[in-house]
Amino acid sequence: MSSIEAVASELQDRAALWSVREVSAGDVVSAACDALVAGLDSPGLRVLAACTSAEADYDVHDLLPVALDELGLDFYPVDSDAGREAAARALARRMLAGELTPWELTFRIRRRYGHDLPSTQRLAELDDEYAFLEDDDSAVAQVNAEVTYEARRLAADPHTPTEPVAPVLPEPHAGTTG
């Protein structure tokens, strides 16, 4: 991934996290500044990056949709289902990048969505499992591995089915008599 793609992805993730109140408006402005420095540019992005800390909380709501649209990125309205899904994917990517521990990911997912978001239901269940682990390093390692697997699944494909899908088998052909 080029540095332009990386900063665009980070801006998209912070926008999604902002839409569910996981990061502040100032974090979005910071991502916009990073994007400009890396070479991503649009008039709306420049205006967004120019926000002061005092302005960010008031102006990001209006400026972010314009900047993202100009860059061909998705804007998720505050507390929308699509924003919740995108924010969960962003948190999974952060865990995979080492910014969160597996337990921190499951805790944040369960705290934010409970068991209600189908794509993150297994992560919420794994957070419940952490509550029953004591000093069993082997069990913690097993749950960590499962969290990592789920984070990869979630981060890799935003449209991954949350339940296994049975393969579609061809209809049996009627036998021929000869």
Number of strands: 0
| Number of contiguous helices | 8
Q: Specify the structural class.
A: mainly alpha
The major sheet is characterized as:
none
SSE arrangement, N to C:
HHHHHHHH
Average residue pLDDT: 86
Rg over CA atoms, rounded to whole Å, is 20 Å
Q: What is the domain tally?
A: 2
**Span of the ends, CA to CA:** 60 Å
Strand content is: under 5%
Strand and helix map with partners:
Elements: H1 3-19, H2 25-38, H3 43-49, H4 53-70, H5 81-96, H6 102-113, H7 121-130, H8 137-156
Helix pairs in contact: 1-2, 1-5, 2-3, 2-4, 3-4, 5-6, 5-8, 6-7, 6-8, 7-8
Structure description:
The protein is mainly α and 178 residues long. The chain has two domains: 3-70, no CATH class; 81-156, no CATH class. It is 64% helix and 0% strand. It contains eight helices and no strands. It has helices spanning 3-19, 25-38, 43-49, 53-70, 81-96, 102-113, 121-130, 137-156. Helix 1 (3-19) packs antiparallel against helix 2 and helix 5 (81-96) packs antiparallel against helix 6 (102-113). The longest helix is centred in the last third of the chain and has 20 residues, at 137-156. Residues 159-178 have low confidence and may be disordered.
Keywords:
mainly alpha; single chain; 178 residues; elongated; 8 helices; disordered C terminus
Short description:
It contains 8 helices and no strands.
